[in-house]
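Progress against Task 2.4 (sequence-to-structure conversion) is shown through the following example record, which the project officer requested during the mid-term review.
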Amino acid sequence: MKKYAIGFISLLFTISVHSQEVISSQGETYTNSNGSIDFTLGEVVINTGTDGNNDLTQGFHQTKWNFLGVEDFALDYEATVFPNPTAEILIVKSRVFQNVTYELYDAQGKLLIQAKLSAEQTPIQMGQFAPGGYSLNLSNEKQLLKIFKLIKSY
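Structure tokens generated for the chain above:
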């Protein structure tokens, strides 16, 4: 009986080792003298780290989440929003933040927050809102710059 238990445990270990696999239709590997990075499309960002010059986002494949995207109205304006999905605090990062306004809308189009970006990294408190889909619009006095589609999680 002990022999069968050891064999069964070995089988489970082998299955679990080989089950950690992602089959993806899109992705890439980048390598340089400092290291390498692999990615696949469909990974949801769950963490973003920065050293001031470089940003690194980490994620995992989770089919219950939807990354909804970005609508780009001003191609020369660069901004990022992270983490997406978020539970408590959303960060808007842009080097050009002066005279840029953000508006947060719920899925029904109701305006929830309207304010100006205050720094290169502006935090937005999301904890008081219900889980679901939201839109964050960035605009200046001349035009709509970007619309980020967001997910507020638990």
